[in-house]
Please model this.
Amino acid sequence: MLVSDFLQFALNGVVTGCFYALTALGLSLVFGLMNIVNFAHGAFFVLGGMLASLATERLGLPLWAAIPAVLMVMWGVGAVIEAGLLARMRDAHILPVTLVTIGLSVFLVNTMLMLFGTEPKNVRTGLEGPPVFLGDVIISQSRILAIGISVLAIIATWLLISRTRAGRAMRAVFQQPEAAALAGIPIARVHRFTFALGTTLAGLAGILLGAVFVVDPSRAEPAAVKAFVVIILGGIGSLPGAVLGGILLGLAESLWGGFVSTGYMDAVGFVLVIAILLFRPSGLLGAPASRVG
Amino acid sequence: MLDFRRLLAGLALLGVTASAALAQPQPQPQPLRIGVIEPQTGPVAFDGTSVIRGARLAAEEINRAGGVLGRPLELVTADGACRPADSVAAAERLITAEKVSVLMGAFCSGATQAVMPIAERNRMPLVTAVSSLPALTQAGNRWFFRNAETDAMIAAAFARGLVEQTKTKTVAFLAVNDDWGRGTVASFRSVFDKLNVTTSLSEFFDHSASDFYTPLTRIRSARPDLVIVVAETQAAGTLVRQARELRLPSKIFGVGAWTTPTFLNLVGPAANGLLAGVPYAATAPGERNATFVREFRAAHNEDPGKYSAAGYTTMNIIAQAIQRAGSTDSAAIQGALEQTDYAGPTGNLRFDAKHQIYGLQLHVVEIENGKPEVRGTATLEQND
Model:
């Protein structure tokens, strides 16, 4: 096996890992801060890709205009769902809320099937040019774009949570809701903001998926499952953990597929999860009591 | 005065009722219900929906021409999601609650295999338009019929010609990790082994996979002359684009729905030069096919693909069998299905003793300027 093959596998793994990380980031945020196991996350992911396909293919918008437009819609979708559905269940047990998100996922996926059909769709990037060669290693322009945007989004999310007032408020609400409320933090707004942010991050991952691969409603379920694998790997509620877990899973799948067997690539993630849970029950970066930041 | 008005009102009411009674139409003939189990959600949802489109078009044509036994056909569709459990539940519901006369389905071989015993137990004819696992017709279930080519038949029809045409010495396989993918690879390999063609790699990927860089990189290192790819529309579109991005030098031969407009749209110019073995091509010659393509285009504004053609011919076979049976008695329909002789857009179709279709036209196409051009045609003969 050549060195260039190894590098190609590793690079492929990083690209997939960026998708995993970005998808898991939103899921981890919503779970860590709001204690909601959001099974509709995969549906948000697909919705982002579908809307971006609509904007670029049907409306002819360039990608740089389509991305902010779609993200704004996704933010709105997240805020409306939080206000209309989840806010009413804020004090409910985790199980009924989980059931609601499963129902929401079924509803969203079938609505998309009705509106957009089953056909897989592209997001037009305008980057159909030749791929870039790094020695013998090949990477397409749309993949470079996807990595770039993912890294930017991850850094922006981290800055938002660790460096801004809004982020401080989010962390405060998570650590001590009563104390945060007493300190005058508007709990309802923080929840709405957090859920909208999680939805938007899922949507962004979906846009990039459509730009590099294709997107269709059947992607929702596998995307959600992979995102759960990643946050368990990285440590539930830990944002650096979600990023690390995502990249790790991408690399593990790609190298396993490259050097052992492509037939069992999807099993690798679950084997990793079992191994991690045996030795570090709270995930790679998860503290015994989960945290955010 | 008041009484007179009341009288008038009463008369008017009487008149309305009487005319309504007169206007009551002749009793409509009961529609003949056909149960159609296809995946409408999940990874092959698009292809499953295409089957339904074809079946619906056939039913509409038949109904315009007066229906079957003087009764209109009614399709009762159910989502089997390509999963055995869902397909079995759908079959039970269609048979007991919806009272269908014939079942069509259930796309994925595994799902069809699970529905077959239900059909047998309920003495219900079951015709599949898609499922290609050879074992299905080997099971000796007399209620089951297959209007689809099997993996082995495709391999036998294409493998030798492919080797001769492309002067291939080494091949690699890249296939979806299910019965169909593994079955097709095994069938091709057995022919290639006889022809002393070396198989350098066999790679499998999951139904929901979207990144094929890893198996494609492995294949690129192995440098085979020919890569045989077994994939459905959703995966095939992504896979071919990625093969082009990675500059895979080998010739690609695709098995699956590789000539559908959706596939060609997804892949764009990267599709040019692809070879595909297909049981159906909209560009295939023949008057019967031209009519079908025209009708389909009028309804859906695009050319029909493999699965729409399969749905269309299957519904026609079912309708003709019921007509021949002269009743909706399931044993009579089963017997009439065995007598099938249907000249349609995919050839002159009959069932052999094991209820496997033959007479199907297979085409080798090459994509040229975004259009599948037929390069060769073979007719599937009766096995053994």
